[in-house]
Amino acid sequence: GESVGLHLPTLSVQEGDNSIINCAYSNSASDYFIWYKQESGKGPQFIIDIRSNMDKRQGQRVTVLLNKTVKHLSLQIAATQPGDSAVYFCAENMWGSSNTGKLIFGQGTTLQVKP
Amino acid sequence: DSGVTQTPKHLITATGQRVTLRCSPRSGDLSVYWYQQSLDQGLQFLIQYYNGEERAKGNILERFSAQQFPDLHSELNLSSLELGDSALYFCASSVGQGASTEAFFGQGTRLTVV
Prior knowledge:
The complex is a heterodimer.
Chain A: E1 4-6, E2 10-14, E3 19-25, E4 32-38, E5 45-51, E6 56-58, E7 62-67, E8 72-77, E9 86-93, H1 95-98, E10 104-105, E11 109-114
Parallel strand pairs in A: 2-11
Antiparallel strand pairs in A: 1-3, 3-8, 4-5, 4-9, 6-7, 7-8, 9-10, 9-11
Chain B: E1 5-7, E2 10-13, E3 19-24, E4 31-38, E5 42-50, E6 53-57, E7 64-68, E8 74-78, E9 87-94, E10 104-105, E11 109-113
Parallel strand pairs in B: 2-11
Antiparallel strand pairs in B: 1-3, 3-8, 4-5, 4-9, 5-6, 7-8, 9-10, 9-11
């Protein structure tokens, strides 16, 4: 079936270190990818997105890398802070072929930041 | 605050019952999406409406239905509820009809079926 998988269920990092969260997607037709952050008791919050015609996109303290050859997506968080503790989801969309906003989400990675 | 409002926040009901979840999108957003989040299935897309019309459908059960009203708010109706329907139900909205526009999520409705 449809799936966007994550490599690790839990990632624990020291405050101030860089974090890397990985994601493998299965659908070659996907052309738009998004990372979401979900804190306890809240809905997913948009972090950063990237289109399939790009390999890298940077935001504030975050960078998303896309490797279409191996269908791999990663989220890098620089200088991780306690407020970054949350579950992170990658999501994919097939805008070019589906023309809809349907997102397929991965299972999520829990990021724990140790003070 | 994302600007997307979902009511109620919590809902406890018995098996076999019917419930209605409500979503008010951000001002100006024409698309509304419904997602189900459970521990074993993760976040699953249910359905999308754009300006009152159904735009995309996911693995939504026949017991579930949704609609978007002229004022753009949306309702998700869940009937003949089963224990397995217990989950968080999220609504999201975006300006356009595709994921090229950022989707904002509400805080969800936690449904518990007993």
